[in-house]
Amino acid sequence: MLVRRVARVKDVVEEALRLVKPSQEEVNAVNEVAKAITEMLSGEVRSLGLEGEVTLQGSVAHNTWLPGDRDIDIFIILPRNERYIDMVKSGELIRELANALSRRGINWVMNYAQHPYLTLAYNGFNVDVVPCIRMSMGEKPITAADRSPLHTLYLRDRLRGLEDDVRLLKLMMKRIGVYGAEVKVQGFSGYLAELLTIAYGGFLNVVKAASGWVPFRVRISLTAHGGVRFNAPLVVIDPIDPNRNVAAAVSLDSMATFIAASRRLLKYPSMVFFRDVAPVPRPSVTAPTLVIYGDYPRGYVEDIVWGQLRSIASSIWNIVKRDGFKPVDIGLYTPQDRYVVIMITVEEAELPPLEEHVGPPVWTEESDVFISKYIDSGDVIGPFIRGGRWVVIRARRVRSIKDSVLRGLKAVGSGVVRDSLLRGEVKLISSVAQVSELPPEIRDSALVFMSKRPSWLTKPEPG
What we know:
The chain is of the alpha+beta class. The chain has 4 domains: about 25-150, 2-Layer Sandwich (Beta Polymerase, domain 2); about 160-275, CCA tRNA nucleotidyltransferase, domain 2 (Poly(a)-polymerase, middle domain, Orthogonal Bundle); about 290-350 and about 400-450, Poly(A) polymerase predicted RNA binding domain (Alpha-Beta Plaits, 2-Layer Sandwich), CATH 3.30.70; about 355-395, no CATH class. It is about 40% helix and about 20% strand. The chain has 15 helices and 15 strands. A 5-stranded mixed sheet has the order 1-2-5-4-3, with helices on both faces. A 4-stranded antiparallel sheet has the order 10-11-9-15, sandwiched between helices. A hairpin with a 3-residue loop joins strand 3 and strand 4 (about 115-120). Helix 1 packs across helix 7, helix 7 crosses helix 8 and helix 8 crosses helix 9. The model has no long low-confidence stretch (mean pLDDT about 90).
């Protein structure tokens, strides 16, 4: 049985390899665009009288990109002095480059992380143009982008022969929904996938190791540096900066998902972990789910939108619990960047009209205040003593989950996502049939959320 399972795992990996290897035609197209933009930017940097090295970075430089990826990262490495630091931080350099690119007829969008950078649309590719300050090993980075060229140098020789293993790991992480360090995903970055592949020596070794991981007990370091201690589910020390946890973005649920999927792949090998063919579920059993949605705020960076969305969801969860509801799950979505959506599933959508309110112990000073508040109240039962405390039964302030969620939303501080949701719609969905009442862009997300089961958690294949 074990021998058969091991053989099946290898068969699945061999089949998946065919999905992750780019065609020579695609390789040529990526390389041509990368070369053209690099040469163009080098010329513009020289024409501006600047000292800067234009270099290819990221997954294309590491040769770990996946077929279909249309993203290329190009960095402009500038001298480490006040003049260039100011130009990077203020955005002066990027603005000058943007003007030069506009004269060439190249479309661009200015984005913001720690400092401005450009995303170019060129021959069907999205090319990020990121300025950074030259950094040597042991130096403190001026911006987060400064580490990237050192990451490429570190990986260059160590990844040789493991490129397809990284691709397999990235594809699996994508299919199970944990690939990406952005706020939206809170998962594994490409660099983290590369370091894990190096640390364990290949894709299958990563999966085998992850199947035995326990959150908050995994610390991986590829160098002799001790580094600082991190309180995080997964800790992977950056070989370029021992004070940085490369896995800092990985949430507990993302790590748990990868652990569970790794265990499942080893026990029940299947292409479901690599193919995006899962049909939209239609659950036969559903729990009450409130869907609140509004228009996606335009002109804001994705991380800003998702940061606000996560903060609002946390507040709603806490207020719903305080109101006496039992939340089961909460999901966040931005389908097609058309809406911002929060879905929350509860055990019951409507609570009884009365609730128990437990007061202080009878022997405390606070008990006199409690008695004074309720002794002349005509709309409570009690006060009476139970378990050494004063207790009353009173009318519940909030009975419907809709009222509770709206109360929670209004209690959140200002923000574009909050404002959009308050202007939007709220619908209680108690059956699959009611999903049709939602906008078409939201329906699939609602069905996936209501089914709860991950798409990769399927019935084992026979044999």
